[in-house]
Amino acid sequence: MIEALKNLRQHLLTGVSYAIPFIACGGIMIAAGIAFVPMGVDGPEFSNAPIPKLINDIGSAAFKLLLPVLAGYIAYAIAGRPGLVPGFIGGYLSGDIHAGFLGAIFIGLIAGWIVNQIKLIPVPKYIKPIMPILIIPIVSSTIVGVLMLKVLGMPIASLMSGLGEWLKGMQTGNAVVLAMVLGAMIAFDMGGPVNKAAFFFGSALIEQEQYSVMGACAAAICTPPLGMGLASLLRRQLWKEEEREAGIAALTMGMIGITEGAIPFAAADPVRVIPCIMLGSMVASTIAMLGGVGDHAPHGGPIVLPVVDHRLMYIVAIIAGTLVTALAITFLKSLKKSTAIEDHP
After folding, report:
1. Chain centre distance of CA 4
2. How many CB atoms lie within 10 A of CB 175?
């Protein structure tokens, strides 16, 4: 059972690792495209801004490829190259019917499993050479397409739509709980599957014109690297030379919304770092949710400030989360150092 879960995690991480460049490229280009145009009732007004529209369109194209790439490379991790075609098709259909990242993840796993089962079927020697390039792609894609369009897709799409409607009807107390959960998920594995589950949830709701979840996620995304970078500057004697250098890099990555900037610190001291960055992200996401922050671009960090609703509260949320992270880890590191001195007078 444990081995199966490890394999599942590895399959998901493979898909996520290939999807990350599309997320970063698409999110930043969309943010850049809509940063310099006015916001109308139905979103950004591109009628008199051909260059920002061009940049936005390119970013949107990159983001539309996200689901096919995610599903395709999950299937690839399970079944090798024969899994790519059904995985890509399943991911494309997931986006087409609005089943979102959940649909892409499920169909990627299923596509890989189906391909592996087809591989087990004995076939004549003269057919074997065309199995991976013709038979397996056609058969597996047909099965995946039928499952996505007729069986799994619509229930998952309904679930995603229901989540959006649930958000609309939320009372303030429930919104705070949601924000805290999202913030904790964003920081927990810093770009891993838990982080991406929260991120994709926020991104999917942008299409339903629900921007507050992405706003909470956007504030939480940047606080782990910003907080750890700030901590490395507050009391430099608590950190090794390489950690101080990583702190500068983390600050840069935090400014452009890359949570992975905190990974070097978490890898070196996970017991102290992970709870601190989770706390900071929870603070940031909660303040953003309470402040009515909305993010119109599927990305986070200060870089998306031009496309954020209630920008002042967004800045306050990021600063608060960054300070909480930095002060919490500084306190724990100081405590550790004091204990070490007492143990070795």
Report:
1. 23
2. 17
Element (H, E) at 298: none
CA distance 209 to 326: 34
Stronger pLDDT, 263 or 168, i.e. the higher one: 263
SS (H, E, C) 72-100: HHHHHHHHCHHHHHHHHHHHHHHHHCCCH
| Cα–Cα nearest to 224, from 240, 200, 246, 202 | 246
Residue where the block lists tokens 């430099």: 236
- By DSSP bridging, strand 308-309 and strand 39-40 are unpaired
CA 66 to CA 57: how far, in whole Å?
15
How far apart are alpha carbons 158 and 332 in whole angstroms?
45
pLDDT per position as a tens digit, 134-169: 999 999 999 999 999 998 888 877 776 666 566 555
| CA nearest neighbour of 26 among 66, 53, 54 | 66
Q: How many helices (H) and strands (E) does the chain have?
A: 14, 4
- CB proximity list for 275: less than 8 A, separation 6 or greater: 328
* Alpha-carbon span 262 to 255, nearest angstrom: 12
The answer to whether the CB of 145 falls within 8 A of the CB of 191 is: no
Name the amino acid, one letter, at 172. Answer: T
Q: Give this prediction's pTM.
A: 0.67
pLDDT at 223 over 70: yes
Query: What pLDDT, in 10s, does the model give residues 47-65?
Result: 788 888 898 889 888 878 9
Q: CA-to-CA distance for 53 and 329, rounded, in angstroms?
A: 42
CA angle 323, 300, 17 (to 5 degrees): 110
> Do residues 66 and 125 touch, judged by C-beta distance below 8 A?
no
Q: Tell me the chain's radius of gyration from C-alpha atoms.
A: 22
